[in-house]
Amino acid sequence: MSTPSLSQPENKKIPKKNILTFFLGFFSASGILLIIARMLGVDFNAIELSSFQLFELGIAASISGLISLSIYLVVSKVYPDTRKLLPLFSSIIFFIIVTGYLVLRYIPKYQIALSILVTATLIGMGWWIQVMTTAASSRRSHTLNIVLNTRISTVYQDNLKKSSHLFKNGRHIAKELAEWRDNPDKPEFKKLKLGQELKDAINGTVFILNYFEFLAQGIKYDDLDEVLLKECFSGFLENIERRGFFIIIEAQKTNPKNFEGIIYLSKRWRGESLVENCKDAPEKAQLGIQVPSKEEVKKIMRGEKVCFKNKPTSKKTRAKKKDKTKNEKK
Predict the structure, then answer these.
(1) Alpha-carbon span 60 to 62, nearest angstrom
(2) b/e code 303-313 from CB counts within 10 Å (16+ = b)
(3) Which of 222, 233, 161, 228 is nearest to 197 (CA)?
(4) What percent of the chain has a predicted confidence (pLDDT) above 90?
(5) Could you tell me if 87 and 120 lie in one domain?
(6) Quick one: where's region Disordered (predicted)?
(7) Could you give the count of Cα atoms lying within 13 Å of 322 in the half-sphere of its Cβ?
(8) Residue 142 domain flag
(9) Taking Cα atoms as reference points, which of 39, 158, 130, 133 lies closest to residue 80?
(10) 267 in the same domain as 158
(11) Tens digits of per-residue pLDDT, 176-233?
């Protein structure tokens, strides 16, 4: 009998919110306990202290940590664009509060220097928040213009129509055509003939892939607003990655950097990339219906013309069309 294989536990990362909540609770509890102990007059003289009382310093550090984390949570919620450097400024606030306690408690002659330090820090933080919010507003308006221009762009809409005409939701480009597009000089493609309709659909799909590649690079280098683009295009991204699955794979065989932005966006927005997961085993990918079908691909490879618009219909539909034309003539 074969013993069942035990799956290894996954290493899950602890959410950032849980870490912040832990430290908030830690500093709050530490500060409260130390303050209560100080008010009760607990004798700490048994411990020899070199320059200052560690007990009161612990109270100051706990309160400083609580204030710093509270500022971090409030500012990150009100100004979400400042989250990148906000931990640094929170650490500076923690350091200033502890330093301020030490100066006021033990070295009062440096109060003027302390006030200058606090003032400069507050001015710097205010300027930094203003710069970050201004840059974010400009980035958001620029992204909105791109989205609106996409909606009214005739070039984008034409390519989207040509791509969606044959490769609707749940359909993908045949592997042979993707190989032909990337390397048309192969011997097996000498007799291959594509109709204009199929050429337009493939070129339209490549155009859409390149457009998403442009968006991905803009997001990666923080030139475009990711939140707005995700709300607008996250649903379509999965479909376009499936539609151009073999085009992306064949392009990356030539250069691994080709269409890397599509994979980057898929992993960032959906948590996984279909191309990355099934690159080594494309047959396992659930791509849907292949267009053209296998039989149609064989005909195309033999040089036969395949028409997708005027496919043969049933007798009933042909009879209905005849009746409509007769009625229109009458």
Answers:
(1) 5
(2) eeebeeeeeee
(3) 161
(4) 5
(5) yes
(6) 307-330
(7) 7
(8) no
(9) 133
(10) yes
(11) 888 888 888 888 888 888 888 888 888 999 999 999 999 999 998 888 888 889 888 8
The closest of 24, 132, 127 to 78, measured between CA atoms, is: 132
Fill in the amino acid letter for 31. Answer: G
C-alpha of 91 from chain center: 28
Residue 285 pairs in a beta bridge with: none
Instruction: For residues 180 and 298, state if they share a domain.
Output: yes
**What total number of domains does the chain contain?**
2
| 157 and 281 share one domain | yes
In the numeric block, which tokens belong to residue 87?
A: 């931990």
Given a contact cutoff of 8 angstroms between Cβ atoms, the answer to whether 86 and 70 are in contact is no
Instruction: Indicate the helix (H) or strand (E) that contains 117.
Output: helix 111-152
pLDDT in tens, 133-173: 888 888 889 899 988 988 888 999 999 898 888 888 788 88
Q: What is the CA radius of gyration of the chain?
A: 32
Give 176's contacts (C-beta < 8 A, 6+ positions apart).
297, 300, 301
- Do residues 125 and 79 lie in contact, with contact meaning Cβ atoms separated by under 8 Å? no
Q: Write down the pLDDT at residue 324.
A: 52
CA distance 28 to 320: 79
Residues 132 and 168 in one domain: no
| CA–CA distance, 285 with 315 (Å, rounded to integer) | 37
